[in-house]
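Please complete every field before forwarding. Incomplete forms are returned to the sender.

SECTION A: IDENTIFIERS
Entry label: holo-357
Bound molecule: zinc ion
Molecule representation: SMILES string

SECTION B: INPUTS
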Amino acid sequence: MHRTDPHHTSKPRRLAAAALALGLVAGGGLAAQPAAAVGEGPNYGGNETVNTSILHTYDELVAELQKQDAKQPAMELEVIGQSVKGRDIHLAKYLSNPDNPTILYLTQQHGNEQLTTEGALDFIKSLGTGKMKGVLDGVNILVLPMLNADGAMGDVDFSLDDYIASGDRHLTRYNANEADINRDHIDRIEPETQALHENVLGAYDIDYMVDLHHQGSRSEADGELVSGSILHPTTPNVDAEVLEGSKRLGSIVYNAIEPTGWGHLGKYVGGSAETIARNGIAVEYDISTLLFEMRGMSDHENPGSVLGQKSNGYLIKQTVTTLESTARALSDGSVEAADTTFWDTLTEQSWAGWPAE
Ligand SMILES: [Zn+2]
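SECTION C: PREDICTED COMPLEX
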């Protein structure tokens, strides 16, 4: 949800520079923490390496999903449709009991936001290990990684010549038709959006959804660059109970990420349009949605949007932590008691300005 995001287009300002300086001071206080907490980790700055070759290709992703499907008795892999270019879109399903709550994790509506998919893949692997033992007894899980497979592979009908990353391929926000899937949740013109609505949202009884994205690399809250920002539905048409569920889900994520030392969350600033998943899906299906916008994109034409790959490990870990903590909280019922009052004081993120050279 970045196209209208003011943080991308703002020019450097003196006030913002002061906020950044504060952030550096605060970061200095974390000397005992790992050297690169996500928020204060390196920028691209024209110097950092941004190489897309370390990311899973679509084919590698599918191969890994099929491998896990063969290995994990609880997992079922479904093809829910095809992209513009004919790539199968996969849904990993763990449906243990219809009486359990069901959560959907969605990644890469925007093809250039791939670390969320890397994290989702690690999460799927972890569901087959002892680490997540018993969790599946209390929750049904659906994982839809890389909805925009054509954009992720740069296999699109428009030029990506201006994109920054090096590597075997470019990744772009849009699908092959240069459409933004996350503005298509009302009209549903694109095949990827149609597949999601017809064969996932309309086909399963889903209670919760986390919609995973990446934003620009220069957003801050409380004087520190954020590792990500979260937001619940903000349309007036959302049911009050559904909204409360979204806020509880956000509470679980906030309390799992914020104390880690490497994570720092702000409140995302978003509008009320129901063409986007966070609002539209909450209203249409009564699903409690949570948007998570992580720091820095995998590729972009704007240097302020991409992030050096030294932060990749933390950002993937942030995804895994988000998915694991919410799955556990739904499974053991603790989500019902989650304290949502933190939303009242969660600082809205703002543009931090460019770093001084
Ligand atoms: Zn996005």
